[in-house]
C-alpha cells in the first residue's frame, strides 16, 4: 500500500473553487483501480492557528492506494488530466508526498 499526502494551495480566495472541482472529480477517483481512500481536509475550525496551520487558501488531500502502479495510473487518468487543466490557473502550488507505511 502507498500513502499520499498532497498539500494544495490555491491562489488567494480561490480555495472554495478548487475544492468544488476536487469534489466533482472525487467519485471518478474513488472508482479507480486500487484507490482505497481519497479525500480533502482543511484546518479544523475552532483551533488556534499555529506554525502547523495550513491557512485559508490551502487544503490537504489524504490518499491511500493499493500499489505504486495504481497511483501512477491515477496520475495520468483522463479525469485527472482534465482536473489539472481546469484548476491550473487557480492553484498557487502543489506539494505531493508519497509514503510507504512502516
TrEMBL record:
GO terms assigned for molecular function: monooxygenase activity
InterPro entries associated with the record: ABM_dom, AI-2_Isomerase_LsrG, Dimeric_a/b-barrel
PROSITE patterns in alphabetical order: ABM
Every ABM domain range: 2-99
A Pfam cross-reference name: ABM
Protein's UniProt keywords contain Oxidoreductase: yes
Top-level division of the source organism's lineage: Bacteria
Keyword Heme: no
Keywords linked to the UniProt accession: Monooxygenase, Oxidoreductase
Gene3D superfamilies found in the cross-reference section: 3.30.70.100
Name of the protein: Quinol monooxygenase YgiN
Amino acid at each position: 500500500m502507498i500513502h499520499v499526502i498532497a498539500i494544495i494551495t490555491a491562489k488567494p480566495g480561490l480555495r472554495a473553487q478548487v475544492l468544488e472541482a476536487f469534489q466533482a472529480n472525487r467519485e471518478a477517483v474513488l472508482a479507480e483501480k486500487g484507490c482505497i481512500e481519497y479525500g480533502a481536509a482543511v484546518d479544523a475550525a475552532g483551533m488556534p492557528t499555529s506554525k502547523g496551520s495550513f491557512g485559508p487558501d490551502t487544503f490537504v488531500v489524504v490518499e491511500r492506494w493499493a500499489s505504486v502502479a495504481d497511483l501512477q495510473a491515477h496520475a495520468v487518468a483522463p479525469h485527472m488530466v482534465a482536473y489539472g487543466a481546469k484548476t491550473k490557473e487557480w492553484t498557487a502550488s502543489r506539494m505531493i508526498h508519497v509514503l510507504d507505511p512502516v
